[in-house]
Design brief:
The chain is an alpha/beta fold. About 40% of the residues lie in helices and about 15% in strands. It has a seven-stranded mixed beta sheet with strand order 3-2-1-4-6-5-7, with helices on both faces.
Length: about 250
């Protein structure tokens, strides 16, 4: 709990058997997490079996692979169903340190923000932490362009370390989003569309063989998808066209 608010960590898992328990242990060490929800997206390893043996954890397994975005949809739906007030997504591949959970939870629990990102770019240690140069360059280019399209000033849009208030998850039309990796970008664009401010905290970067990552071909597809979302957002803002991702705002 944080100030009587239930804190739930969700882990969208896929072939995370080697790092799941280490991530879980560090999450629970933070002392503010009430429950962990692990959604296994039809892994081909022992992810589900390992998850079933972890205390204070609910485990759900998709019968077939739904994709990274599809997995997150399940994560957030299940978190809301369990009564979460603060939902923090932590990848079970241990790329993002769970030690930032108390800080992220406090920023939401104190009513300062409804969304907090763990940024690998803030602090300037992304390359030293092992981020490949081509990914760093692509990250900087896409973030610069998206800030122009979306009218924001984020240091990056592509981190998978995110915390949300219950209010924001209930309001966003997440069912309209992709089931692929572009889900992350669509979600941030929707948050900005509804007028929320996105906060960021500096997150150390860790790259190693077990850390999940999309390949170059899918990264290119993702990059063009980000640009397309930014363009749709700008057209909707100008009233030129309407996208189901950005519905008319009602009070």
């Amino acid at each position: 709990m944080f100030r009587d608010k239930k804190v739930v960590v969700v882990m969208p898992a896929y072939n995370a058997a080697k790092t799941l328990k280490q991530t879980y242990n560090e999450v629970m060490e933070q002392g503010v997490v009430d429950e962990i929800i692990i959604v296994d997206d039809a892994s081909r390893d022992e992810t589900s079996a390992i998850a079933q043996g972890l205390p204070n954890t609910k485990v759900f397994t998709h019968p077939s692979n739904l994709g990274y975005g599809g997995n997150q949809k399940s994560c957030y739906r299940l978190a809301l169903e369990t009564g979460a007030d603060i939902v923090i997504m932590v990848h079970p591949d241990y790329q993002y340190t769970p030690k930032l959970i108390p800080a992220m939870a406090s920023m939401i629990g104190n009513g300062l923000y409804s969304c907090v990102l763990g940024s690998r770019i803030l602090g300037g240690h992304a390359l030293k932490g092992g981020m490949p140069l081509w990914k760093y360059i692509a990250n900087r280019f896409l973030t610069f362009t998206e800030n122009i399209f979306l009218g924001a000033k984020l240091s990056e849009y592509h981190t998978g370390y995110r915390a949300f208030s219950r209010e924001i998850l209930e309001r966003l039309p997440l069912d309209k989003n992709s089931d692929d990796f572009i889900f992350d970008n669509q979600m941030l664009a929707q948050i900005l569309w509804f007028g929320y401010t996105i906060a960021e905290v500096s997150c150390p970067t860790k790259y190693f063989p077990e850390a999940s990552s999309i390949n170059f071909q899918r990264s290119v597809k993702y990059g063009f998808g980000c640009l397309w979302i930014g363009w749709q957002y700008r057209l909707a803002k100008l009233g030129i066209s309407r996208s189901p991702l950005f519905p008319a705002k009602t009070n």
